[in-house]
Every structure is written in structure tokens, then in C-alpha cells.
Amino acid sequence: MGMWQGISQGLDAVEQRKLNQAELDIRKRANERAEESFQLDKLTTRTTLAKQLRELYGSGSGGSTGSSKSKSPKITSSENKNNFQILTQRFEIDPEQVTKVYATGGAKAVAKAVEIANNYSEKFRTGSYTGSEPNIIIGQMLESALYTDPETLEYDWDKISAEIGVPLDDALRTMMGENYTVPGAVSFETPALIEKPSLTDLADVKKLAVSNSLQMAKKEKRSVFSRVNQLAKIQESRTLTSLEEQEREWLTERGGQIKSAIESHKEEVYDPLIGLYGSSMEDLLDYYNQFEGAPIGPSFFEASQTIQTVPNRAVALSLMQADILQPGMTVRNLETGKLIKLEE
User: Fold this and answer.
1) Is residue 111 within 8 Å of residue 75, measured between CB atoms?
2) DSSP labels for 113-129?
3) Which of 209, 252, 246, 221 is nearest to 324 (CA)?
4) What b/e sequence results for 271-290 when a residue is b if at least 16 CB atoms lie within 10 Å of its CB, and e otherwise?
5) Where are the alpha helices (DSSP H) in 167-277?
6) pLDDT tens-place string over residues 292-308
């Protein structure tokens, strides 16, 4: 009996040791799995962190060592192909020019060019705006675009660590890489459309031109007759020189033209005034550029193109000294037939 009891106890002990070993094995495997899970989580965390840091400080980023990154949806290859066709076929842009835009700024730059082109074209087709045809304007826009080439830069690890508040270990740096690339960019200057003036606006500008011309006529009339009186006093003491005679003849004729133009203005006939001071109309049209090419009327237009004439350069300079002709004016020299721009 005692022997069997001893054997039984021995077997129980062996069984217990087996159970203990099995439990140890289970715990060991559990620990190993936990360690593997920890390492996996650690790797995932590092990968996520590396990705976040690349987005913040790397290519196309908005961080302190990168450039801004657009969050707009990615443009598919079919969309990009369609954009190429719009620019090259509808707007007749040189394919090489579009390729240059794509090579530097990518599909987004091409898409931006298409967006601007379509907006310009839609407004231009309404007939409410003045300017060149869309294909000309968009072609000029692409030619004058500002191109920025891609640039490869190294990460500033010290600066990144200082900004996020923790040091970056070698493993994380390896995952991020040593450098990043700032993508190229293309900047366009959106072409401006000038709204066509209304008939009321055009009438107002013509009235302003006439009003300016009338004031100029009155001022010049005083200057002309003042100079005529000066020459008359000179003639009382001596004979006028040839230059003074030519000047007096010009002043007499000019004074008659001014007087006649002022009288015509009273009868609401304005072309003579505009003929004398066409630059007044031209200056207004230049200042209000929406009136470029506006139908101001053939007689008004022809009158505004009239160029003042002088016998010769010497008379022109004398008239300028008398404050009748002004510096910057262009007059025609009847002696040579050439135009003279008066300088101080």
C-alpha cells in the first residue's frame, strides 16, 4: 500500500511539473506575442510620425522648411490630357508652351491655366468687354508666367526637434530620408477684362474733352494776343527779324483759328476745338483705357488726330518760350515736314 501511494505521489509530481512547464510556455509565448505587438505598434507609430513630419516639414509642406501644399483633389491622367487638348486646340496654344507649364508646375498648373482661360473666354463671349481674343491673351499669359524650378533641400533636424519638443532618433531620420524636394511652381497673372463703356459714359468723356479744349483755347488765346502785342511794341522801335515776322504770322493765323473755334463751340460745333487740342481727347482715352477703340465718331476722331504745325524749329522754340507751345508737345516742322517733340 505504501509503495503504491509513493508511486502515485511521484506521478502527481511529474504531472504538476508538466502543467507548470506548459503554463510557463504559454506565458512565454504570450510575452513574445506582446513584444511583437509592441514592436509592431512602435514601428507603426514611427511610420505615422515620419509621415506626419514629412508632410509638415518636407516636400510641398507648410512647415518652416518647406513650401505650401495644396489639399485639392489629385488630377487624373485623363483630366490632364483633356486640359492639354483644351489649351492646344480650343485656345491654339503652342504644345511646347503647355508642356513647359506641365514640366514645372505639374497637372495642377495646367488645370489652373485652363480655369483662367475658360473664365476669360466666357466673359469675352458676352460682348460686354473689350480686349484681344482669348487665344491671344492666354498665349501671352503663359509666355509671361513666372516659373519656379523644383529644389532639393536637406532637413534641418535641430530646428525640427526644437519645434516639436523631442529629439529625433536615427531610426526615425532614416525613415524620413536625408532631404526633401520642394516641387516646381508656375504663377500666372490673371488677364484683366475691360468692360465696354456705355453710350452715356462715352458722351461724358467727349463732353470732358470739349470742356478741357475750351479752357485750353481761352488760355492760349490770352498768350497769343499777349505775344502779338509784345511784337507790335518791338516793331515800334525797330524792324522785326525774319524769325519774329514768321512768328507773328503764325500767331495771327493761330489767333484766328482759336477765335473761330470758340465761336463754333457756342453753336455746339466742337470739332474745331478738338482739332486744335486733339491731345486732350487722346489723353482722356489713354487715361480711361476702357474707351480704347470706342466709337467716338469719325469727325471727332479725325479732329483729334490733327497735329499742330510750325514754320520751323526756331519759331517752335520761340513759341515755347512765350508759353504758347508746351514742353512735351509734338508739332510738325513745315520746313522739313518732320515731327518735332518740344523739350525744355
Assistant:
1) yes
2) HHHHHHHHHHHHHTT-E
3) 221
4) bbbbbbbbbbbeebbeebeb
5) 170-176, 199-237, 242-266, 271-276
6) 554 445 555 555 556 78
91, 98 contact by CB (below 8 A)? no
Say which residue the cell 504770322 belongs to.
Answer: 249
**Residues contacting 109, CB < 8 A, separation 6+:** 101, 102, 185, 186
DSSP β-bridge partners for residue 154: 179
Question: How do residues 167-193 score in pLDDT, each as one tens digit?
Answer: 767 776 777 777 777 778 899 988 877
Q: State the average pLDDT for the chain.
A: 74
Q: Distance between CA 238 and CA 244 in Å, rounded? A: 12
Q: Tell me whether strands 330-333 and 309-310 are parallel, antiparallel or unpaired.
A: parallel
Rg (CA), the chain: 43
Cell of 66: 518647406
* Cα–Cα nearest to 142, from 119, 121, 117: 117
176, 46 Cβ separation under 8 angstroms:
no
Q: How far apart are CA 273 and CA 280, in angstroms?
A: 10
Report the relative pairing of strands 146-148 and 151-154 from DSSP bridges.
Answer: unpaired
The grid coordinates listed for 165 are: 519638443
DSSP 227-241: HHHHHHHHHHHSPPP
Q: What is the DSSP letter of 151?
A: E
Amino acid residing at 25: D
pLDDT at 287 over 60: no
Q: Is the Cβ–Cβ distance between 177 and 79 less than 8 Å? A: no
